[in-house]
């Protein structure tokens, strides 16, 4: 999966998937991730993980976690206003990020950092290699673990689900090493530029969230010592 940092299509509506010719492409830097063979058991597990995209409604085991989510949403929402000024759009986006990230066992703030670096929060971003959407998912994933419909990668929840499941998969491959997992996600495993960019963005989102008060977020550690 080759993923881009700054290659975007600025589109005017939800019909982008059938009207790409009407969009204006901007230059970008692309990664070099390649499609890798998956064991049948892994393919089956990943396919199950991206299936059944129910509406992203967070469920909390206690009031403390619900309050943590509300503080996270408030802090992240303030910082996201410039990118997504519409209140309803921003609310839905953050709710879906939280839902899909926690579903995959990821820190939602890490996912915000990755989206910032990958697509600049552009729903219809596309790389020179064809990676699509917020989390810049390569179309081959829709064939490998999905139903083959690459146009779904421009749907918000589908894109976030694919991206979070893929990052979780790479974390499992790298035995929890976030630095290496991020490099694999970008196709630059072992190099520091991309992981450092994502982790730096993550810290800025954490700072924004911290302004809204203490929080409790179950997520992933910041990566291997000395690699940030």
Describe this structure as you would to a colleague.
The chain has 228 residues and is mostly helical. Helix content is 47%, strand content 2%. It has a two-stranded antiparallel sheet.
Short summary of the structure?
The chain has helices spanning 40-50, 63-80, 87-103, 108-119, 140-144, 156-173, 178-186, 193-210, and strands at 9-10, 24-25. By secondary structure, the protein is mainly α.
What's the multimeric state? single chain
Strand order of the largest sheet: 1-2
The average pLDDT score comes to 81
By DSSP (H or I, 4+ residues per run), the number of helices equals 8
The profile of the biggest β sheet is:
2 strands, antiparallel
General shape: globular
Q: Detail the poorly predicted runs.
A: 1-30, 218-228
CA gyration radius, whole angstroms: 17 Å
First-residue to last-residue Cα separation: 23 Å
Q: Would you list the SSEs in sequence order as H and E?
A: EEHHHHHHHH
Q: What percent strand? A: under 5%
Given helix and strand content, the structural type is mainly alpha
């Amino acid at each position: 999966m080759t993923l881009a940092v700054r290659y975007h299509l600025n589109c005017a509506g939800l019909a982008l998937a059938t009207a790409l010719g009407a969009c204006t492409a901007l230059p970008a830097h692309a990664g070099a991730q390649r499609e890798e063979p998956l064991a049948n058991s892994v393919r089956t597990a990943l396919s199950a993980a991206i299936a059944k995209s129910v509406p992203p409604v967070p469920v909390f085991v206690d009031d403390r976690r619900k309050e943590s989510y509300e503080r996270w949403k408030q802090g992240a929402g303030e910082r996201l206003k410039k990118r997504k000024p519409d209140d309803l759009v921003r609310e839905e986006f953050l709710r879906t990020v939280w839902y899909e990230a926690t579903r995959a066992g990821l820190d939602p703030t890490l996912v915000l950092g990755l989206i910032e670096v990958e697509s600049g929060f552009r729903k219809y971003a596309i790389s020179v290699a064809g990676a699509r959407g917020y989390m810049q998912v390569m179309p081959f994933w829709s064939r490998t673990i999905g139903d083959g419909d690459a146009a779904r990668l421009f749907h918000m929840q589908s894109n976030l689900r694919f991206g979070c499941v893929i990052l979780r998969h790479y974390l499992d491959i790298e035995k929890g090493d976030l630095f290496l997992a991020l490099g694999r996600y970008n196709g630059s495993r072992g190099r520091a530029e991309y992981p450092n960019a994502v982790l730096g963005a993550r810290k800025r989102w954490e700072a924004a969230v911290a302004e809204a008060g203490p929080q409790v977020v179950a997520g992933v550690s910041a990566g291997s010592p000395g690699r940030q």
